[in-house]
Structure formats: structure tokens, C-alpha cells
Amino acid sequence: MSVACSEMERGEKAASRTDSGSEEALDRLLAPVGAPRRKSSGLGKPDPPLLRTSKRTIYTAGRPPWYNEHGTQSKDAFVIGLCGGSASGKTTVANKIIEALDVPWVVLLSMDSFYKVLSPEEEALAANNDYNFDHPSAFDFDLLVHTLRKLKQGKSVKIPVYDFTTHGRQKDWKTVYGASVIIFEGIMAFADKELLQLLDMKIFVDTDSDIRLVRRLRRDITERGRDIEGVIKQYNKFVKPAFEQYIEPTMRLADIVVPRGGGNMVAIDLIVQHVHSQLEERELSVRAALASAHQAQPLPETLSILENTPQVRGMHTFLRDRETSRDEFIFYSKRLMRLLIEHALSFLPSQSCTVQTPQGEEYEGQSFCGKGITGVSILRAGETMEPALRAVCKDVRIGKILIQTNQDSGEPELHYLRLPKDISEDHVILMDCTVSTGAAAMMAIRVLLDHDVQEDKILLVSLLMAEMGVHSVAYAFPQVKIITTAVDKNVDDLFHIIPGIGNFGDRYFGTDAPPDWSDEEELGGVSC
């Protein structure tokens, strides 16, 4: 799953209806008049940090922290609501905003995904162009509000995928996560009071009705295989009346009205300027807060350090020695990782069980009693621990998270993640080779929590940690078990662990570290 940018499969809806349920529907529709409309002013358009492929758009910039030093959500995603009639150009406006924003991690959410599942009778009506898809009752507002609220709070959500051919939801839903900005569009985007409360900015795309009809004819005939008579029948019977009754009246709720749709770059530039100002007000500085907090405290009870036997100390001697060759560094790293993983497994839940030995005798043993085990590595150094985990955990599932330090702000940024399905039910072994301030580890834990992994089921496993990192993680996430082979006392001004082992990734992979590296900084391109 790419979290850099998630775009729903979409298309604006055909059809609307005006029936006896209109008064009841309106009771939940029109909220008090919103802010006055604003006039647009032009701005320069920067080149966005995009990597475009035939199937997806990937933001090559990372997602900055969306939580504070306490590990709690401190800022919601900024939600832009786009409303307008069918074929008014909402999709074009949304894409223009995304391209002009020049910010990472934008999610485009379509109201089209939230049509209700039709009954057999309603399916028959839809097949004859007699079902009104533009009436408020056609949408699952409860699911929509629940989903948008979770997404705004930074949680991972599953989005239904609507099939316009069968008029039903596909079996597999899409997982969406990681929004700094959410662009939510739909014909009824302003038609629900609870929904309106989630929108930070409301935009109405106003397009001439003749243009919308021409666009609708072209789209439904060429893309959806419908005949011209059926399209015109739907438009006259449902779409046009519904626009006048339900959609056009909500224009007064908009903060900005965009005439002419995606061609109005003046309005789009004004929207982009406002969103930038809002995002600047929400910027956080987590690493600096970690460096000055929770120090001079006793080590937490959730910390477990591998027994410092002569063998363990001997391996540390090789790893810390600057003269150790790369081959020996890899060899002793692997030995120590295997011991560390075995030690970490002892903290997983177990239960007594009885088995029969080959001699026919009973043996009172232990067995794992959790749902499953998933290993998640923080790229790139954490990935070196995966073979040790696979060697002792049969059929373990593996996930990956790429976190890099922003060279300008000094803050960790989330670039990429791939997590197994239903990870929320598993015990998760989170692997990183070194932890200095704890900034990267905290971001990775926050990601797991956003995917509904229980905090007390997370084990942070690291070869070497600094006291600062231990305190930071334990303070923010007191139920996370912290497991390591050693804890060093200090971190210098460049966030190097002192005495430390150097840049683990560079020593392991044989690459050269930049002069300003830190123990939590892994450089490299985005992997998707």
C-alpha cells in the first residue's frame, strides 16, 4: 500500500431524484450559512514533489510528525470539501489543487464510494435508469462521516469501492492512510450537518448547466456504456430537479465559489494559499522537545536489557571497534540479533499445553497464545534484523516503514509503509538497530497505533539505544515493551549515541555516511 498519495477510483454520479422523502432528508441537510465568499487572487504555481507512474502518483516528500512528544495526535488533517452538480468539474478542481499545493500526503476521497448497497428491487430500477442516485438517501452518510472523521484524526481507514456497472460495492475495499490534507468531493458534500462540521474549507464548483449536460453525455456514453436516451431520461427526471432542490441551495454554505471549474486558476491559487497558511500554523517540532524532556529519570520498568554475559560483551566489543572489518561487523551483528530476537520472544503471551513424546509420555510445555506475530522493520537498518526473526518465527509476516530525517527541519518524516492486512490483531515486533532520541521509533509506533494495533502488543527491539530514546518512547507509550542489548548514556549535539557504534546502516551495507548523519537517519530513495 502506498501512503504517499491515495486516489479513489471515481466518477461523478449520474442521476438524482425528487420524491416524497425530500422534506425528511432536508432535516439533516442544510446547516446555518457559513463564512462569506472570498474573492480570488493569483499566486505563482510551484512544481509539486511528484513521481508519476501509469497507475499512481507518489509524493517524494515525507510526512512530518502529526503527534507531539507525548505521542498523541496533536493536529488533524486539513479537510477541503468540494461540492457541485454532476459533471461540474469537481475532479478537475481537486486534481488542480493537489498539483498546486506542493505538500506531501494528500488524500482524494470521493463521495461516489459511499453509495448504499442496493436491494434487488432497487437494482432493477437502476438497470432501467429509474433509480435516483442523486438523492441524499442514496448515500451511506453514517459510514461516510465515520470514515472521514477517522481519516481526519490520522487513522487508517477502509474505503468501499463502488462499481458503476453493477451498481454495487466490490468485494475488496481500499485502505487509505496518512493524510496531511484531505480533499473530499461529491454532489452532496455539503448535504449533511455532521459532515459539514468535519470540513475546514468548503468550495462550491459552479458550472453552467448546459456544459454539465454535455460532459455527462460524453462521460456516461463513452465510459459507462449507456445510451443517449437513458442518459437524457435520467438527467431530466432526476439530475436536474435534484440539483435545483438539494445541491444548488448549499452554494450559500461555501467559503469559496469557483466559477468555470478547473480553468479558474485564480480561485485555485487562492485556495492553495489559504491551505499553506493553515499547514504552517500546525507545524510541530518533536525532536527538539524530545531532546529536552524526560531526562535524569530512572530507566522505565518496560525496558528489558539482554543479560550482559561475556559473550554479549565480546560481540559489542567487535561492533563498537572502529577498526572492525565489514565482514566481521555483519557476522557479529547477526549473532547478536539472533540472541536479541530470542530474548524478545520470551515477552510474548504463552499458555501451558501438554504433548505426547515419542516415548508415549506426557510433557507439560508452553505455546504461544496470541492471534499472530508480525515483524515490522524501520528501513533501512531495521531490515537487517528480519532474517533473525524469520529464523526463529515460522511463517512470520513482515511489514516495512521508511522514515528519514528532513535535513532542513531535523524532524523525522514518514515516506513509505507496507503493512500486512489485519495487523491490528497481531503482536508486533518493531525492529530498528539503533535508537538515539527515539523520534523515528515514536513515529513508527504512532503508525502502528493508527492502524489499530494495541499498544501493549508492540515490542520495540533494538541492538543499541540511548537513554534519551528509551525515556522518550516509554513516556509517550508506557505500554510498549522496549528490548535491547545495551543502553548508552549520552547523545551528542548531532544525535549520535555516545559511545555508540557509529552509523549502523553504513557499516553494515558498506556505504559512506554524510558528515551530519545521526543514529536515526537512514538515507535513500523512496521505495514503493
TrEMBL record:
GO biological-process terms attached to the record: pyrimidine-containing compound salvage
Gene Ontology cellular component list: cytoplasm; nucleus
Signal peptide: none
Keywords, in A-Z order: ATP-binding, Cytoplasm, Kinase, Nucleotide-binding, Nucleus, Phosphoprotein, Transferase, Ubl conjugation
EC assignment: 2.7.1.48
GO molecular function: ATP binding; uridine kinase activity
Region described as Disordered: 1-54
InterPro entries noted in UniProt: P-loop_NTPase, PRK/URK, PRTase-like, PRTase_dom, Uridine_kinase-like
Annotated Basic and acidic residues bias: 7-16
Location within or outside the cell: Cytoplasm; Nucleus
Family: Belongs to the uridine kinase family.
NCBIfam families reported for this sequence: PRK00129.1 (NF001097), PRK05480.1 (NF004018), udk (TIGR00235)
Assembly information from the UniProt record: Interacts with RNF19B.
Protein name: Uridine-cytidine kinase
Organism for this UniProt entry: Megalops atlanticus
